[in-house]
Design brief:
By secondary structure, this protein is an alpha/beta fold. It has helices at about 5-20, 20-30, 35-45, 65-90, 110-120, 135-140, 205-215, 230-240, 285-290; strands spanning about 50-55, 60, 95-100, 125-130, 145-150, 160-165, 170-175, 195-200, 220-225, 245, 260-265, 270-275. Helix 7 (about 205-215) links the parallel strand 8 and strand 9.
């Protein structure tokens, strides 16, 4: 009997761990149930650890089994990523970087990065996916994204985070709002207005920051609507359903009947950060990071 764990062992183990049923796992693997049971017992003997609790009614994972399941899933993810990168290299490219982003990052940061990549590292492929802050964190942790652009105060210890853009906030008012932009004297004026904000689930850091801006002015905003899209927020404001506060960079590219007042005198700033996994093994990630911070 071999004294080493092989990939086939992990494949068999994951099938049972996912199905929690030896017959269904064996059918999934196209092998006999007795043969699968022998492979699992051999694996447990090599590891000197019981991986499954078996009885007549059910199969469940032991604590050791739960740990191995996570480790095995990571191993296969890394193998899949390695195969993908090798295929790109073999096809004449140097690799691919997968980027997650919030819509506001598309105003300047990501287009600038893509142009630099096209100019200096044209053989690196990029893929983009717009996701919420927390979805990006989850995808980067799972090696489904290489980097993400988020607005978060903190991230898990397994990730790096670095600010890439510091922006002011701007107040968004309907074009017909009974106040000229030059008449703005402070947020206290808007205590009775309804506010339209990005959803707290979509961007908790943004939501808390807006709350603090209003708190500094002595009131808690009345939130009438929430959205995850800037265009939706502007459309609601345009139709006199409330007012909004957004990162200033978001105002560009939209043609709507709204007016903006940049809040230069408040202490809060809209920080956009890049996140990436400390143990990311993608060979082209560092090249992208170097270009991102190359001024």
């Amino acid at each position: 009997m071999s004294s080493h764990i092989e990939l086939r062992h992990l494949t068999y183990f994951l099938a049972v761990a996912e199905e929690l049923h030896f017959r269904r796992a064996a059918e999934k693997l196209f092998i006999s149930q007795p043969g699968l049971s022998r492979q699992i017992k051999q694996m447990e003997a090599i590891l000197q650890a019981e991986l499954f609790i078996r009885d007549k009614k059910k199969v469940s994972l032991t604590p050791a089994g739960h740990y191995l399941k996570h480790q095995a899933e990571d191993i296969f993810k890394h193998l899949k990523e390695t195969k993908r990168q090798l295929q790109l290299i073999g096809g004449g490219d140097t690799g691919e970087v997968r980027i997650g982003f919030l819509g506001s990052a598309m105003q300047d940061v990501i287009p600038s990065l893509l142009l630099k990549l096209k100019e200096k590292l044209p053989r690196i492929k990029t893929s983009l996916e717009e996701l919420s802050n927390l979805s990006q964190v989850d995808a980067v942790l799972k090696d489904e994204l290489d980097m993400g652009f988020v607005r978060l105060a903190k991230v898990p210890a397994a990730l790096n985070k670095k600010t890439v853009f510091k922006d002011t906030f701007s107040l968004v008012l309907p074009e017909s709002y009974p106040m000229l932009t030059r008449e703005y004297e402070g947020m206290e004026r808007f205590v009775e207005d309804n506010f339209i904000l990005f959803s707290q689930d979509y961007s908790p850091y943004y939501y808390e920051t807006i709350m603090s801006i209003c708190s500094d002015a002595g009131f808690v905003p009345k939130v009438s609507h929430k959205s995850v899209h800037a265009q939706t927020i502007f459309k609601l404001v345009e139709n006199n359903l409330g007012i909004a506060i957004i990162p200033t960079a978001l105002q560009y590219g939209f043609q709507m009947r709204v007016k903006f007042i940049e809040l230069k005198d408040i202490k809060q700033r809209a920080l956009l950060s890049v996140i990436w996994k400390k143990e990311n093994r993608n060979p082209v990630l560092q090249n992208c990071m170097d270009l991102l911070f190359d001024s």
